[in-house]
Amino acid sequence: MRTYFQVILACVTSVAAPALAQSPAPAQSQGAGSPAAKLEAGNNPSLPELPIAATGSRASENAVRQAGDAFGTSIGRETIGLYNQGNVRGFSPVAAGNVRIDGLYFDPVIVPTNRISRATNIRVGLSALGNPFSAPTGLVDFGFRRPSNKLAASMLAGIDAWGTLNTEFDASVPISQQLSLGVGASLRLENGANATLENEAGGSISARWQPSDALTLVPFINLQSVYYDDHAAIYLPAGDYLPPLLPRRARFGPRWVHGNQTETNLGFLADWQLAPVWMLRAGIFRSSQHRVNGMTNLVREITPDGNGSQRVLADPPLDFASLSGEIRLTRGIEDGPRRHLIHAALRGRAGDRRFGGANALELGPVNIYVPSTAPKPDIRFGPQQQDQVRQWTGGLAYEGRWQGVGELSAGLQLSTYKKRIELAGGGLQGTDARPLLYNITLAANLSERLIVYAGSATGLEESGIAPGNAANRNEALPAIRTRQFDTGLRYTLAGTVKLVAGVFEISKPYYNLNSNNRFGPLGDVINRGIEVSVAGDLSNALSVVAGAVLLQPRVTGEAVEQGRIGDRPVGAISRRFEASADWRLPFLPGTSLDTRISYRSDETATVSNLTAIPARTQVDLGGRYRFKVSGRGVLLRLQVTNLFDVQSFELRNAGAYNLFPGRVVQGYVTVDF
Q1: What percent of the chain has pLDDT over 70?
Q2: Are 220 and 106 a contacting pair, CB within 8 Å?
Q3: How confident is the model over 562-602, as pLDDT tens digits?
Q4: What are the residue boundaries of the structural domains of the chain, listed by start?
Q5: What is the pTM of this model?
Q6: How many CA atoms lie within 13 A of 304 on its CB side?
Q7: Per-residue pLDDT, 476
Q8: Euclidean distance between CA atoms 424 and 292, whole angstroms
């Protein structure tokens, strides 16, 4: 595949090099009518604003009809596509720190809820062109739910066959011509696939103050309280094999194994059009989590007959907070059929974290088919550690569009990174980095229907934290250097139906569990792949979103050469196919049927590569009925997920598993006011 990748990259680069390119990115996540949206629309009129998941119009939410491609879209409660926040091209963009709110840099401890996020898009390849500083692993862009200048509200109530209850409420309240308030609330009483309970309540308040047509200010706060959270068991077999089939709808673990936590996202967005050709955008955000009584429920050394031993890791209160943001000044230049944007940006983040001090509680032998009723022992916490991350990044970027010819996007960033860890027993560890990062993407319009592109980017990314079953659990890991090359095309097949295809190569250091059960560096991982998307309306009645990823992940390094680990990274899936369709029934106005078919090949489950979760295909089936009551839009939604009740496992980490959910019927009603 490497030779194939290099040949395609060389060919596309040679074709595209003489031209600047058009941005083929899907809809931007700007608020309707905001100055930032107007500036971006001026650079690319093909970028419509998103009238989706907006307060007062949630009854029209439909991810199949509103997705621009098959690479990952969330609209309200619905998510479709090949990728998601935790997995893009084999890596996690959230763990890597490649997250944006309305295009501005955001370092999330907790990702935003639907109370402040109306839509989420995964931006890779061509769709990343709308962002002046692209990054390896792709971008997760949360579109902010800005209060409208019209009085509007939406309410949702849902239930599923397991007994989960869910309610959501959002409203926009105009106070004056210049000021509008947004409020939201939610309550979820979840009864999970393994009969665990998770009860949470949340709310949000935001404001949109527009003292002039040129200036928009948006403060917000979003709180989420998980006030009761059963900790589902994580199963670790005694050898290189999968656990036996896990019991369904059966909670495993003593009733005292639960916890609670408070999650907060608050911030401030500002768009200021200083002059017709000058735009200042800024965002500052604080994301935090305070966890109380956190526990990890492990069933270890499981044999094929279900016998094992139970260990509960009890944590003292844990805190993690990150202050992050970006200020960006943009200059627009009109030059006949050409338009140029020059960006100067400063980004920063300050992360503070308290962790460690866990008490390992050994509860003795168990059998996973027999309820565990061990009494709660005394818990004695140990000393905790502190870590701090400070990072500043300054950058210059250029975006140029030549109408009918193409687009060039390039950026250069200098980043200063410092991490300090105060050890529980005394002492200080630290790591510093000062990389110079770049990104460049070149696209060319070869015809009205065909656009080709090629790009390269480097990044400095977080490698996450050590997982719950590691000896150094919760430990923050150092930043890593990453690199990406990709190239591809977009072709309009007919009408709104577009084909997007590309190849890519991403390289990063490889972190996982070593022979001492510590989570750390084991070598390097290179993911090479091919991705394809087809999306659009085949007719007035039928819309489709379909895609495929063929991935060749490889681990290199001394540990592989010595045979201590396998050459495939944990979690690697070589093939993934997904197709979603929505069909409006012509003989039943307001009624539509939808389906989602998802296939994934086997998933590498252990560092040794001796165990894999088998391939599986999941089919979901649903329907919608839209109608009006007293002029108000109403949506009735019914869906069956995992229609054929496939039994499998979810991989939590190397050699650690939990239950893959079985078939469930769910439904909800949405009313717009």
Answers
A1: 91
A2: no
A3: 888 899 999 999 999 999 999 999 999 999 999 999 999 99
A4: 2-672
A5: 0.86
A6: 2
A7: 67
A8: 20
* Residue 464: pLDDT band with limits 50, 70, 90: low
Rounded Cα distance between 599 and 69, Å, is 18
Strand order in the sheet with 73-75: 78-80, 73-75, 117-123, 139-144, 99-101, 104-105
Residue 200, strand partner residues = 188, 226
Burial of 540: CB neighbours in 10 Å, binned 0-12, 13-18, 19+:
exposed
Distance CA(157)–CA(312), nearest Å, equals: 35
What tokens were used for 409? 């996007």
Q: How far apart are the first and last CA of the chain?
A: 54
Rounded Cα distance between 521 and 478, Å, is 10
* Alpha helices (runs of H) in 302-453, residue ranges in sequence order: none
Distance CA 585, CA 97 (A): 43
| Residue range 365-390, pLDDT digits in tens | 999 999 888 999 999 998 888 889 99
- Closest to 620 (Cα-Cα) out of 596, 644, 600, 602: 596
pLDDT tens digits for 397-432?
A: 999 999 989 999 999 999 999 988 887 777 777 788
Instruction: Specify the CATH number for 2-672; select among 2.40.170.20, 2.40.160.20, 3.40.50.1980, 2.160.10.10.
Output: 2.40.170.20
In this prediction, residue 53 has a pLDDT band, given cuts at 50, 70 and 90, of low
Enumerate helices (H) and strands (E) in the chain, giving the number of each.
5, 37
Report residue 659 as tokens: 């239950």
Does position 461 have pLDDT exceeding 70, yes or no? yes
The number of residues making up the chain comes to 673
H-run or E-run covering 602: none
Residue 453 CA to residue 504 CA, distance in Å, equals 12
Distance CA 237, CA 293 (A): 26
Which two tokens mark 105? 């840099």
Output the CA torsion sign for 102, 103, 105, 108. positive
Q: Which two tokens stand for residue 637?
A: 């939604």
Kindly list the distances between the CA atom of residue 438 and the CA atoms of 344, 435, 456, in Å, as whole numbers in the listed order.
14, 10, 8
Average confidence (pLDDT) over 33-57: 46
Q: Cα–Cα distances in Å, from 670 out to 57, 75, 77, 404, 470? A: 9, 14, 11, 42, 43
Report the distance separating Cα 325 and Cα 636, nearest Å: 39
Q: What is the 3-state secondary structure (H, E, C) of 123-151?
A: ECHHHHHHCCCCCCCCEEEEEECCCCCCC
- Rounded-to-integer distance, Cα 229 and Cα 191, Å: 11
Kindly state the DSSP code that residue 564 receives in the 8-state scheme.
Answer: S
- pLDDT score at 125: 87
| 3-class secondary structure, 50 | coil
Asked if 507 and 525 count as a contact pair (C-beta separation under 8 A), the reply is yes
pLDDT(153) > 60:
yes
